[in-house]
Structures are given as C-alpha cells and as structure tokens.
Design brief:
The protein is α/β, with parallel strands linked by helices. It has 23 helices and 17 strands. Strands 3, 4, 5, 12, 13, 14, 15, 16 and 17 form a 9-stranded mixed beta sheet that branches. It has a 6-stranded parallel beta sheet with strand order 8-9-7-6-10-11, sandwiched between helices. Helix 8 (255-263) links the parallel strand 6 (243-247) and strand 7 (266-271). Helix 11 packs parallel to helix 14 (367-390) and helix 14 crosses helix 15 (402-409). The radius of gyration is 24 Å and the shape is globular.
Length: 667
C-alpha cells in the first residue's frame, strides 16, 4: 500500500510482523514498575481492546513483555512502515483540508529530527506524548482522513474516542490530556494511570500537535537571555565573552545553545546523554562538544579571552561544571537550568557521581535510592549556584520546576519568608512584566505547502506588519516590537527550521491578527501556494495557569487557580479555532499547571478571515484582562489601550487600595 492507503487503513486488517526498536534513535527511559498483578491484567485488557480477538493471545504476551520491561505498552509492532515527517498538505488523504493540516502537525511532532523519543511517541520533556501507543496514532490518522467539515474528533489523552456530528464552525478536533480528578493528580498517579493506558502527559505542545522543534523555544530563550543580560547592564555587543551556564539539550532545551549564539555570549550547556548532545551538534544547534572538565575549562577561558560567541555542549553533569567553575574562578554572568525537572525521578534529571547508563538502570530497578541521589544532587547544585550568586551571577528559574524540586529536596533556595524562592522565575523578572502583561507571546505558524519559498514570504509579511505597527506604537512596547523585528530579520540566517516550514515570533493581539490577516489574503491571491497553520506555545499570555511559571508574576493570590486556561480553550473553540487542547501538566509538572492551546488553519476564505479576528483577539485579551484584574500595571495599561481601540470590549478594572488603609487595621 502507498502512504495514503496506509493512512486510510487505520488498524491493519492483517496482523503485522513484530518490530524491534531502532537502536539509532533515542528511547524513553524505562518507567517504574508500579502496577500490581490485578492492575497489569487491566492494563492488558485496555491495550487489547484496540484489536480483534483472534490476535489477543499473541499480542497479550508481547504487550506484557513491554509492560514488564519498559513500564508502558507502546505497541511497537504497529509502528507504520512509512517515513515519519510533515508532508506537504496535498499528500494527505482527506475529505477536509483542515483535518489534513492536523495530520501534518501530528507527523511533525513525531518526526525523528524533532521528537525526543519518536518510537515511544514522545516529543520532548522526557514524557511529553502525542499518543500513548501506536494503535491510537493509526486510528486518529484514519479518523482525520475520513472526517468531513461537519464532524469533530474527540481525543481523550491520546485515545481517539470518535467522530461526532458538529458543524463547519466547530473545531475539527478537541484534545484533552491528563485531566484527572484533582485528588488523583499526584506524580505517582501519573505513573499508575499512564501504565494502565488511560491517561498521558501531553506536555505543552506535544499532545496538542503544535511543536515545531527547538525553534519554538529558541525565540523565547533568546528574548529571555537578552533581557537577563540587560538586567546586568550588558547590551548588544557588550555580552561578548560573558558566560551563560545551563543544562539540558534534549527536547526543547536544545534551544539554549542556539539562543546564546543569537544573543552573542558564551553558552555552556551540560548534557548527560551523549546521543542528545550529538544530535544537537549534527543539527547545528551547538557549535562544539567537550567531554571532560579540564578541556572545558581551557576552552571557556580561551573563549573569554577572545570574547567569542560560541556554544559548547559539555557531555557530563552540570553540577560538576558549577563546582569546577567556582573552584577555577570562572565568572558566570547568567545561570539557569532546563533539565526536565517536572519529571525528576524518571529521566528528567540525572544525579552526579553516576554514569548515564547506570542511572537509567537504577531508575528502573532501585527507584527509591535513585530518588535519594537526585535530591542530593539538587542540593549540591543549589549550593554551588548560591556560591556563584554571591560573586554576582544572575540566576533565574526557567520554569522547569528547578527551584520547586530543589526546595522539596531540602536545598537552600527559599527566601527569608520561607514561602518565596530566593531566585526569581524568568516570568517574574522578565517575560511577565516585559511581554505577557502587554500581550506579547509566542505566535507561530507552519506553511502547509512545505515550501521554503512560502516561509520566506511569510517572514517578510510578518516583518512588514511589525514595522508598520512600530511607527505609531506607544513607547511601552517599542522594545518588544524591535526585538521581534530583529528576530525575523535573522531567522533564516540562523537556520532555525527543523521539520515543518515554520516560524515563531512574539506579537500582541494587534500584531497577531494583522499578520494572520495578511497571510490569509496572500493565500487567497495566490502569493502563498497553500494554507498556513497558526498556533502558539501554551507558554503565553492567556493559555496557561502555572503558579511557578507563566502566572508566577500574579500576586493577588489567584495564581493557583486555573479559570483562565479553561476559559481560554472554551472561548477559542467557539470563536474559530480549528482544534483546541487542554492539558494537566507541562513544563513544571503533572498537577502543577493547566495548559490550553489551539491550532487554526488559514485557507484564504472569508470564513477564515472572520475567525482569525475573533479568536486571536480573545486568545490574547482574555489573559491581559485577568492580569489587569491582578493589579499588574503593564496589563492595566494594555487592556485600557485595547478598550479604546475596541468599543465592544468592556473589562472589569480593579480599584487600587492605598497600603495605609489596610496597614492601620492589620499590623
């Protein structure tokens, strides 16, 4: 069968031969054995319900082997034989072009050039899944191929529940991931219910089919890092020779080294997995690999002396780097960490003093002692960061739950009040007040044609729009606009595309709507050869309620609520989104955050023009309104400005209280 026939076939009618995993690819760590005998039986029943009874005897033994040896049933036998990548939209079988666009995005998420553990259907973060198993992938793709414009596909934590009658105005797909009853949302619950095959961790953009490779976070990291250096008084060329020390090259954290090069500093990024480091080197996201500390010290000192812009991946543990740099008096200007600490004991963080291979064995076979080593290592790392900070290092938490897990390990990371952390979140210090509160966030698009020429045209359109807006923009947002104009000018030169022909920049509601409208016009008049798929990271103004990251700069006590993310997804769904998604977990961990996302297909029609204006406006301003109500002054400015532009927008504004009124009553 050809590609289209295989998609339409779904679960094959003939049992395929057993497949073995590709040893050249990175594979997910072995999950802990958490099920008792009764629960294992339930897990097998859950897996076998995808297949006809005559296959059950053979598959049951095979699936039990996967469950016992890997801690999860992936159904490797049902991996498709065709190559996995984002094809041009015309190559997908479909009755509905919008469904074909979603198939393109799903395959992009699973492209081995993009996905962290592609054969386990994990895109990034160690456990950020697109689907739980390959049967779900096959069925979902088949449903999308036969879907009409008046049906909607429900996805329950990777499981394609079915096609339901709806309307052309409704979303084509509604995705939920890990939406647990609150009392069953602990990390141990995730392990259990994931092993049972009834839920999954969708991360932020993995389970919503909107990951575009490390480019997605390169931009946010570049903006964050640029402003971190500005906070230290280093602008432009003054960052040359300054050190940014961090960790993690797997999944989206591979963006750090590329972002450092864009900003112009020396980036040292430690990575324990040699395969991940090599992959980033091959992709051009890191300049050099070093595998011993002595060579690293020599190379960094030379780079400082020459004021180089260079990214160096150290294959080893970041704790050793922090300690060695302190002993050798190597000044670290900016420090952070991007290991997957939302998943600290199952492959997200590796302790010092033990090899990568031995750690993976210990993780599965001696989980209790592995946890002890991880927490000891976190305390050790936090101690060294504290010593560097006394010398002037600006350390910020990059939203990966580093400080949260350090505190849980008993490390010295709390402020004197024993509630807050002594180091800021990057959202508290940088992205919150400088970007999110003004409505600027990660707007992204994918050219469904797969053509570089279309991407070049969209880049130019986006640049033109931002330059036009900047002419009359208030001073408060001039820097944000200029940073993004500079970004789009250098985007092609920085070779950021991996997988689909995609781009990202930070824009507010005005910018997003105007750029999208120009795209839609360009499709209509033939300037662009095919549809454009819009989306964003959930890491944005409105989409995410995350008290230790996206909403960490909300101080009215509501940062632990999740109304904004829920309202965002519901509001986007009836304002024109092609698909919407809501996740428990992502970035900072299961039970710690609720993420909402969307995808929107622009096809050059009048319907698309109307939908983009309604949906993009709400998608941003819902969050600005909430931030304004929390008394964030930047958000108050932004929402008042929007109400002046949009007479039909009426937002409840807070009345500010003088401190003295309350202080004289409560002392």
């Amino acid at each position: 069968m050809n590609f289209k026939e295989q998609i339409l076939n779904g679960i094959p009618s003939v049992l395929p031969n057993k497949k073995i995993r590709d040893s050249k690819l990175s594979h997910a760590p072995v999950r802990k054995a958490v099920l008792n005998e009764t629960e294992k039986k339930l897990s097998l029943r859950n897996a076998l319900r995808y297949f006809p009874q005559q296959w059950h005897s053979e598959l049951a033994a095979e699936f039990l082997e996967e469950l016992n040896s890997l801690g999860h049933i992936y159904m490797y036998r049902f991996m498709p034989d065709y190559e996995m990548y984002a094809r041009p939209i015309e190559e997908y079988p479909c009755n509905c072009k919008h469904a074909a666009a979603i198939m393109l995005m799903i395959q992009n998420n699973l492209d081995p050039a993009i996905a962290q553990h592609p054969q386990e259907l994990i895109t990034y973060g160690g456990n950020g899944s697109v689907f739980q198993n390959w049967a779900q992938y096959l069925i979902a793709m088949q449903y999308l191929a036969i879907m009409t414009d008046e049906q909607t596909l429900n996805i329950y934590s990777g499981h394609p529940q079915g096609l339901f009658p709806s309307s052309a105005a409704a979303p084509r797909v509604v995705v939920s991931n890990g939406m647990m009853i609150p009392n069953y949302s602990s990390p141990s619950d995730l392990e259990k219910f994931s092993a049972l095959g009834v839920t999954q961790y969708g991360q932020m953009t993995a389970g919503s089919y909107m990951y575009i490779g490390p480019q997605g976070i390169v931009h946010g990291t570049a903006i964050t890092l640029m402003n971190a250096f500005r906070k230290k008084g280093f602008y432009g060329s003054a960052v040359a020779g300054k050190i940014f020390l961090t960790a993690g090259l797997g999944g989206m954290s591979g963006a750090q080294t590329k972002a450092g090069n864009i900003v112009g500093c020396i980036t040292v990024c430690a990575e324990v997995n040699p395969q991940a480091a090599e992959k980033r080197k091959q992709q051009g996201w890191v300049d050099e690999l070093v595998d011993n500390l002595e060579a690293l010290v020599s190379r960094v000192l030379l780079a400082q002396s020459n004021k180089e812009t260079v990214s160096i991946a150290y294959i080893g543990n970041v704790v050793d780097v922090w300690e060695t740099f302190y002993q050798k008096n190597i000044e670290v200007t900016i420090g952070s960490d991007q290991t997957s600490l939302h998943n600290p004991f199952s492959g997200g963080y590796y302790p010092t003093g033990i090899s990568y291979a031995d750690a993976n064995i210990m993780m599965a076979e001696d989980a209790a002692n592995f946890k002890v080593l991880v927490q000891q290592s976190l305390k050790q790392q936090a101690k060294s960061i504290g010593e560097h900070s006394k010398r002037g290092t600006y350390f910020f938490d990059y939203g990966n739950a580093f400080l949260l897990e350090c505190s849980r390990a008993g490390a010295d990371v709390l402020a004197p009040n024993k509630v807050d952390f002594k180091y800021p979140s990057y959202v508290e210090d940088i992205l919150g007040p400088m970007c999110f509160d003004y409505g600027f966030g990660p707007f992204r698009w994918v050219c469904a044609s797969g053509k570089s020429e279309d991407l070049e045209i969209t880049d130019q359109i986006a640049r033109d729009v931002m330059e036009e807006i900047k002419v009359n923009a208030p001073v408060e947002i001039q820097q944000q606009l200029q940073d993004n104009i500079n970004w789009i000018i250098g985007a092609a030169e920085n070779k950021l595309v991996v997988g689909s022909k995609s781009r990202i920049l930070y824009a507010d509601a005005e910018g997003r709507a105007k750029i999208a409208s120009r795209f839609n016009d360009a499709i209509k008049n033939g300037q662009l050869s095919a549809a454009v798929i819009l989306g964003r990271d959930h890491h944005d103004v409105s989409g995410t309620d995350s008290p230790f990251r996206e909403t960490s700069n909300i101080y009215d006590g509501s940062r632990f609520t999740a109304d904004m993310a829920i309202q965002n997804v519901i509001g986007d769904s009836f304002r024109g989104a092609t698909w919407v998604s809501i996740h428990n977990g992502g970035g900072v961990g299961w039970g710690e955050v609720i993420n909402g996302g969307f995808g929107m297909v622009l096809d050059g029609t009048a319907q698309a023009a109307a939908k983009l204006k309604n949906m993009l406006f709400f998608d941003v301003n819902n969050g600005i309104a909430r931030r304004s109500w929390a008394r964030n002054k930047e958000a108050r400015f932004a929402i008042e400005r929007e109400m002046e532009r949009t007479p039909t927008l009426r937002v409840t504004l807070p009345n500010l209280v003088e401190d003295a009124v309350i202080d004289q009553l409560i002392k």
